[in-house]
Amino acid sequence: MDKIVVNGGKPLHGDVRISGAKNAALPVLISALLTESPCTFSNIPDLVDIKTTFKLLRNMGVEIEGDSTVTVSAGKITASEAPYDLVKTMRASILVLGPLVARMGRARVSLPGGCAIGARPVNLHIKALQDMGASVELHGGYIEARVDRLKGATIYFDLPTVTGTENIMMAATLADGVTVLQNAAREPEIVNLADVLTGMGAKISGAGTDVITITGVPGLSGTEAAVIPDRIEAGTFMIAAGMTHGDINVLGCIPQHLDALTNKLRDTGMTITPIAGGLRVAAGRKINSVDVKTLPYPGFPTDLQAQIMAYMCIGSGLSVITETVFENRFMHVSELLRMGADIVIQGGSAVVRGVPTLYGAQTMATDLRASASLILAALVAQGTTEISRVYHIDRGYESIETKFSALGADIRRIKA
Ligand code: UD1
Question: How far from the centroid of its chain's Cα atoms is residue 126's Cα?
């Protein structure tokens, strides 16, 4: 297995270009299941999760051509099934459930099971499809759904689930009648998907708010659309600039998508200025410790919690980081402790006391965003840090070591 090796202590300078968002690209690619006509999507990042999505779609008889611009043709769906082997490596595979039921009237999708950051059930996806008239049964670890045609319904999500909102929004585009999603998630990736679906002929209003209304249509057509830039990747580089006493231009990002982070980083003393095509992000002289609470969008993203914790490890005081979206999302803490951090977990919060120096160590990535936090800590640590199990990071960050290296970091990948 590949390793990433970092010699810390180099301030970051220069430009970094942000790739397409993984969490937008996945539902956008899968949305092509809703139509017989080809769809062409650009700004697709080169990531392991994208390759898994291609496998998932090809397994259903879908044709896929291209790499950063991809044409997806679901003229004929030969198997409305997502097998365990693929779903277990990428939970977002559950996103095929809604489109398959809507177009084919049936789907057999493996239950995702547990993952490193908590139980992450899909009960809200299932209940919503049942509310729309589907019969859903669980057999041998698989969700088996059937319906003649989904019916529009008013769905209330107990929690604003991102992939749940996307799944049911896609399903509702081909349903008979009007579907209203209440307490819907408001993430920019949902707006991106709604725009793509609208381009295919769907009738959707309210995406980006907590009430989304979808009026079903008999069929959808092909479209051409671009995936939005990855706000989590952008946020990771912004935090890196603050940690390393750097000054970088984060290009190709959408600043509004980063408001929660930008405000927090300014409180830590960083200077963040809009520039043509992105943000200039510069470290402050001192790192003020700040408290952070993760929330659904537009709150502070849980996908940046591990990274801001790495930053707070070298803050000048005490920081309380509270995780409210996922239980058990503190796997990075034990690794940061091995680098000299001072962190105590109390329930759903981590109390981080800033230390003057982190030290290089051998560490292990446990999940996607946890691995990013270890790279950030390694960039400022005294000495050498080795991060193993980097396949986690390859799921969601495109060419991370190349991008950091271009900014002046001493970072390299050792191929297995
Ligand atoms: C998506 C993102 C992930 C991000 C997360 C929260 C993708 C591919 N992944 O994950 O990167 O960390 O949003 O921003 O976009 N829940 C239930 N029942 C359900 C569904 C969710 O109880 O049926 C709970 C979850 O356990 C969690 C909360 O709802 O506590 C939010 O999860 P959700 O928004 O669904 O996360 P994902 O869509 O899986």
Answer: 21
Could you give the CA distance from residue 71 to residue 227 in angstroms, rounded to a whole number? 13
Please choose, from the candidates 139, 132, 173, the residue with its C-alpha nearest in 3D space to the C-alpha of residue 155. Answer: 132
Q: Is 397 in the pocket of ligand 1 (CB under 6 A)?
A: no
Q: What domains appear along the chain, each with residue ranges and CATH number?
A: 3-19+229-414 (3.65.10.10), 22-226 (3.65.10.10)
Compute the distance between CA of residue 192 and CA of residue 297 in angstroms, rounded to an integer.
14
Torsion of CA 129, 134, 137, 142, to 10 degrees: -60
CA of 143 to the centre of ligand 1 (A): 18
Strand extents, DSSP E, 103-162: 106-110, 135-139, 142-146, 154-156
pLDDT tens figures, 205-251: 999 999 999 999 999 999 999 999 999 999 999 999 999 999 999 99
Please state the atom number of ligand 1 nearest to the C-alpha of residue 49.
8
Ligand 1 geometric centre to CA of 122 (Å): 9
pLDDT in tens, 38-60: 999 999 999 999 999 999 999 99
Nearest CA to ligand 1 atom 17: 121
Atom of ligand 1 at shortest distance to CA of 122? 23
Predicted TM-score (pTM) above 0.85: yes
How far, in Å, is the centroid of ligand 1 from the Cα of 401?
28
Buried b / exposed e over 276-297, threshold 16 CB at 10 Å, is eebbbbbbeeebbbbebebbbb
Across 244-248, 288-292, 318-322, 393-397, least confident range:
393-397
- Cβ distance 230 to 19 under 8 Å? yes
Q: Is the CB of 305 under 6 A from ligand 1?
A: no
